[in-house]
Amino acid sequence: MKRIDGGLIDRSQPMNFRFDGRRYSGFAGDTLASALLANGVTLMGRSFKYHRPRGVMTAGSEEPNALVELRDGARREPNTRATMAELFDGLTATSQNRWPTLGFDALAVNDLFAPFLTAGFYYKTFMWPQAFWEKIYEPIIRRAAGLGSLSMLPDPDAYDRGYLHCDLLVIGSGAAGLAAALTAATAGAEVVLAEEDFRLGGRMLAETERLDGTPAHEWVAETEAALRGMPNVRILPRTTVFGAYDHGIFGAVERVGDHLERAAVRQRIWRITARRSILAAGAIERPIAFAGNDRPGVMLAGAVRTYLNRYAVAPEGRVAVFTSSDDGHRTALDLIATGVPVLAVIDPREDAPRFGDYTVMAGATVTGTIGRKALKAIEVTAADGSADWLECRTLAVSGGWNPTLHLSAHHRGKPAWDDTIHAFVPGGELPPGMSVAGGAAGKGGLASALADGADKAKQALKALGIRAKRVDLPGAEDAPAALSPVWHIPGKGRAWVDFQNDVTVKDIALAQRENMVSVEHLKRWTTLGMATDQGKTANVTALAVMAELTGKTIPETGTTTYRPPFSPVSLGALAGGDPGKHFRPTRLTPTHHWAEARGAVFVEAGQWLRAQYFPQPGETHWRESVDREAKAVRAGVGLCDVTTLGKIDVQGPDAGAFLDRVYSNGMASLAVGRVRYGLMLREDGIAYDDGTCARLAEDHYVVTTTTANAGLVYRNMEFARQGLFPDLDVQIVSSTDAWAQIAVAGPKSRDLLTRIVDDADLSNEAFSFMACAAVTVANGLRARLFRISFSGELAYEIAVPARYGAALMARLMELGADLGVTPYGTEALGVLRIEKGHAAGSELNGQTTAAMLGLGRMVSTKKDSIGAVLSRREALAADTRRLVGLSPIDPEARVVPGAHLFAETAERRIDTSEGWITSACHSPHLGHSIGLGFLADGAARMGEIVVADNPVEGGQIRVKVVSPHFIDPEGGRQRD
Amino acid sequence: MTDLTPTTAFGVSAPRDERHGALTLSERTDIALATLALRAGTEPPTALPEPGEATDAAVWLAPGQWMLMAPGEAETDFAARVAATAPGCSVTEQTDGWVIVDIDGPAAAIETLRERLVNLPPSALAPGRGTRTVLHHVGIIAIRPAPDRLTIMAMRSYAGSLWHALATAADRTT
Q1: pLDDT at A953 (0 to 100)
Q2: Of A533, A601, B31, B43, most Cβ neighbours within 10 A?
Q3: What parts of chain A have a pLDDT lower than 50?
Q4: What pLDDT, on a 0 to 100 scale, did the predictor assign at position A142?
Q5: Nearest C-alpha neighbor of A293 from the set A364, A183, A368
Q6: Which residues contact residue A864 at a Cβ distance below 8 angstroms, ignoring those fewer than 6 apart?
Q7: Number of Cβ pairs closer than 8 Å across A and B?
Q8: In angstroms, what separates the C-alpha of A782 from chain B's closest C-alpha?
Q9: In what helix (H) or strand (E) does residue B117 lie, and over which residues does it extend?
Q10: CB atoms A778 and B3 under 8 Å
Q11: In whole angstroms, what is the distance from residue A506 CA to residue A802 CA?
């Protein structure tokens, strides 16, 4: 192949690039494939299984052969179609699936073993031993029969996403797509026009057809300019619509920076919501299966025209055309027009026409080829059976065109067979709002496509309620097609159907003999239609071959399932812009920066980051820090940011009645200025969240949830308010982030708070256990004070507007220095609550009831509440497991959560398990390990010794069943 | 007047203000917020926006519920003042519940930003409109006070993640 004059490339912008280390040059407007061809490079890849030399076959996204690794280093992108890679200055590409070089590939030895590497080869050969499959067979197969290789480095490029909403999405900008977009846009509809190519125009760029006497690409340019001038039109070139999803939503990937050496954004995923859509994706030419049809130099006839007319790349040496329709003859005419001599048009039709000054071999077929790395000669068998070898460097093949209907079938609509064009056309139920126009609907002639695009747009406008306006479309003619389909030429040699997966007619025949006749079985048995091209050039031919073998018609044989994506989408694009730290959002507490400055170690709690503990100089193990913090709380006073607990503001005349139904225990009876511990059940009676509920006024409560369930509880309460109890006059809103809330816990907490609360009387008489009040702190700042305790000590929680949270924490630290005030994290918080026997997430794990938690009396029988009735059902009520404390007999032994509990004498099996350990910690107060757990009949087994067995990690210890309240079981400390 | 020193949602004393691409991102710490919800049989104390609409002073959140905004009053007990003027309504303090970011710049750049951030048709964020939606997995309130301004509010604890998302998208506008 060589560069000739003309074409739609920009010769004022030369571009240098490398392929397999060698330097070449091309022009702006080239693809890697066209530029390589222009430089005389026809060998571009090696086949998947046999490592046969392959050249480019197509000029579009359907390319099965010319797969390369684009760019290098961390940016290396394997399996890039050279036909889709827009040339840029500095582009680097490498061939793949070859060793050591593309010209000499040692693994081409596979080709000699082709008789063994038949359909189902892997399934038949690597059957045993089964254990070998994952570790030995599969890695070897993958190495030998692979595509490109990954860089194994993080992708350094940025990806982006975006959302578009429009009246009409037009997919494809060929004749039908442009006519549709112009018609809809002129009428005022919001139009998005997506084009896979970097240039609008579709086949109009590749053909020499004229519109009103001028080259079609000139009309394309005029129309593009007109559309770009309209504010209601969005043109997205380099954008592949890869999937049709529910409710008129389409996925599309825009290759924003793939054609630049460096770009701020590499690719962008668009989520397009379209009220109507027109699929105008054109058609894909199909090859004919004949012996040796995979050699570099055998190309699709339409692709030869694309390279010739659009990219100004012409074949060198002798060219032949093999076609079973009039359409292929156009290639001969275009070649002759540019001065390329045509050896012959080989046309299997007995009555093959002749449209120009070239030789037509009517009734003849191509039955063989030679040439290892490039085509050298073809064998032509004439109508009378005589065969002749003709020297030939390029063979243009056309077996007809298959409409690119993939997106129309993404909702499982089954394509219908069209006997006039001998191809599948969109059929069955299309995605809602979609219509198909032009070549994609089997109306690929230029005049037909223009008219059909305009018609479908008018229909869409009508459905949208927009009045169509007159649009003048240029005059055109349909080129003759007159296809008489020839699917494969019988013969001895291997005739390729799926070039990418090395599937031949023989493989299909073998699959048929092995009863893999269903197309879905055929696909899996032979790998036909798999991998990056998903059989775009192969599938219909394969169906035709299978139909012939089984004696069925093609429509009876059916198609495989069309699924997104239409063509490969990079994982980087799908993952979006933030694969690292910002992959999901993070929530920070008001004292986060304060804690960070003090060297806190943080732990994730859902999306929150919470201080886990605050290491001090000299502390080398986390437990030293945690023990110190826990002891400081029990001995003096500690501070912990508890802002993360959900706060739900509940107001309205019926707030109490509403909360009575949401909590299992009563809240309407709660006095103003008091706080009550509350339990919530799921509808099925299982306990799911607990927390405190404070009554600030007659018609105003604040509900506190656990950190993990804040969103869930709010959602459930909103559902209850709107859906279950719409008769109640109650309003709820989240105010979690509005208030910074700090737990002030320990015997000296009152002393500390007295120093900051304005005019404080925090005596037991004035502000007893479970009291709450609106107060002011630090000279007039509004605050809320709650006397509640998670640690079992005298304790409070104080809330101020969040912007003052860090300052409040710092002030409390300052004022409490002489009291030994100590900040503590979630780890110490956990130790304190285990010592006190308070349930948390490990106990409220979605499997436990109020009774199991020892809170059975909190499910009020005096009123109804969500989950109350089902909590009394037999299966739940009969559960005798109860929350108990567990103390090891050997004080050195470590209690491990997750261990199961067994009677000392029992054989240890899952059916003899009597419960499990939910939480455990080292108790600095007791000086040994302790645990909480659920034990069958636990309340009645105090003092008994059971075995905690941990078969997962190994180890078992003897533990004594004790009260879960290791600290102050009478509760005097928190009350006094 | 309290002698405690407030910090912003980013943990520092001054509101965050940065230029990214064609846009300026400015944290607004001066705006007081409160939600107002109607109780049965009550009328709004004043004219409040219809669904999908927003004014300088309020944005519709849900049936019978609005977020009220008062620039310059963040240091006052705005909720108490609203409650006093709206008898029969449920009023909740929200001032520090939200981080507020004004995005200013050419209308075209703002449109681009909207397109990259939220899955809404352009009309939903035309000038004078506002709505609750989602951005980078964060629930937000988006308001378009003017062609050259977009205001995004997210729960205060998300401030860092929100800023990252806004700044990254804004950097890509020109």
Answers
A1: 87
A2: A533
A3: none
A4: 66
A5: A368
A6: A661
A7: 143
A8: 8
A9: helix B107-117
A10: yes
A11: 74
Asked if A803 lies within 8 A of B159 by C-beta distance, the reply is no
Residues of B in contact with A593 (CB under 8 A): 7, 11-12
- The pTM of this model reads 0.93
Spatial CB neighbours of B144, under 8 Å, sequence gap ≥ 6: B54, B110, B125, B126, B127, B128, B129, B130, B150, B151
Which element (helix H / strand E) includes A689? strand A687-697
Asked if A307 contacts A200 with a C-beta cutoff of 8 angstroms, the reply is no
Q: Which of B1, B3, B7, B66 to mutate to test the interface with A (most CBs of A within 10 A)?
A: B7
User: Does B87 contact A at CB distance below 8 Å?
Assistant: no
Query: Does the pLDDT value for residue B147 go beyond 70?
Result: yes
Strand pairing of A503-504 and A496-498?
antiparallel
- Cis-peptide into A891, omega within 30 deg: no
Q: How is residue A70 written in tokens? A: 């684009």
Cross-chain residue pair B115–A164, CB shorter than 8 Å: yes
The contacts of residue A171 (CB under 8 Å, 6+ apart) are: A177, A194, A241, A250, A277, A278, A279, A280, A281, A407
pLDDT at residue A145, as a whole number: 58
Please say whether the beta carbons of A235 and A227 come within 8 A.
yes
Closest residue of B to A799, CA-based? B96
Contact residues on chain A for B64, CB-CB shorter than 8 A: 731
Tokens 């705006």 appear where?
A: B31
Nearest-CA distance B131 → chain A (Å): 16
CA distance A633 to A433: 65
Its CATH class, for the domain covering B17-29+97-173, is alpha beta
Q: Can you read off the two tokens belonging to residue A438?
A: 């032009």
Length of chain B: 174
B118 touches chain A (CB under 8 A): yes
In B55-74, the residues whose Cβ lies within 8 Å of chain A are 64-65, 74
Q: Whole-angstrom Cα distance, residue A106 to residue B75?
A: 77
> Exposed, middle or buried, A27 (CB in 10 Å: 0-12/13-18/19+)?
buried
Q: For chain A, what is the largest distance between any 2 Cα atoms, rounded to a whole number of angstroms? A: 116
Query: Over 90: is that where the pLDDT of B29 sits?
Result: yes
How far A852 CA lies from chain B's nearest CA (Å)? 35
Q: What is the ipTM of this complex?
A: 0.98
CA dist A182 and A698 (Å) reads 65
**Residues of chain B found within 8 Å of residue A578, distances taken between Cβ atoms:** 136, 164, 168
Domain ranges of chain B: 17-29+97-173, 31-95
Distance from CA of B58 to the nearest CA of A (A): 16
Query: Which of A427, A431, A429 lies closest to A440, judged by CA?
Result: A427
Distance separating alpha carbons of residues A630 and A640, to the nearest angstrom: 11
Q: Quick check: A807 contacting B, CB < 8 Å? A: yes
The amino acid at residue A908 is: R
Distance, in Å, from the CA atom of A529 to the CA atom of A503, rounded to the nearest integer, reads: 9
In angstroms, the Cα distances linking A868 to A650, A660, A680, A789, A860 are 22, 11, 10, 27, 8
- Helices and strands (DSSP H and E) totals, chain B: 3, 10
- Strands B23-27, B65-70: pairing is unpaired
- Contact with chain A for residue B172, Cβ under 8 A: yes
Selected for mutation to probe chain B from A256, A587, A703, A784 (highest B CB count within 10 Å) is A587
| Of A879, A863, A867, A792, the residue nearest A829 (C-alpha) | A792
Q: What pLDDT is recorded for position A143?
A: 65
Q: Rounded to a whole number, what is the distance in Å from the CA of B21 to chain A's nearest CA?
A: 12
Determine the Cα–Cα distance for residues A27 and B74; give it in Å rounded to an integer: 61
Q: Name residues 13-42 of chain B within 8 A of A (Cβ).
A: 29, 35, 37-40
